[in-house]
Amino acid sequence: MGSMISSQMKEVMSEQMKQSKESMAEMQMTAMERQIAMQDQMRRRQMAMQVARSRDMVLWFGSFYTLAGIGLISASRRTKNRAYLGPLIPLTFVLFYQLDMAYGNKIDRMRAEAERIMSDEDHYLALPYGTPTLKAIEEARKASKNN
Fold this sequence. Notes:
By secondary structure, this protein is mainly α. It has four helices and no strands. Helix 1 (2-79) packs antiparallel against helix 2.
């Protein structure tokens, strides 16, 4: 009789342990999914800030470009010297770069290039001495603690 109760207890405990492991695995999976979702939201917010910054830069640089263009064109006409128009060439390239970043598809092209680098040129992404290991981090922590 005692052994029957004991074997039933073992079965119950084994079943509870199995359920506990499944529950813990499910909780870990949920925590990981939440962490991934949070990191994705942070990345999206940072990208939105970058686009907003680019658009703000276009406003400021566009104003500068307009004023500089008016001044350089009027100086060129007044003195009949076309050399005053020279600075407009690089300023035009900078303005169009900023416009492409703020309102064009520059970010999409940069993302595509990053994906290509990650898939075809992985060797550029390697860290010196490889990926840090827990052992190396712990050794460095202990070394800094001793000094």
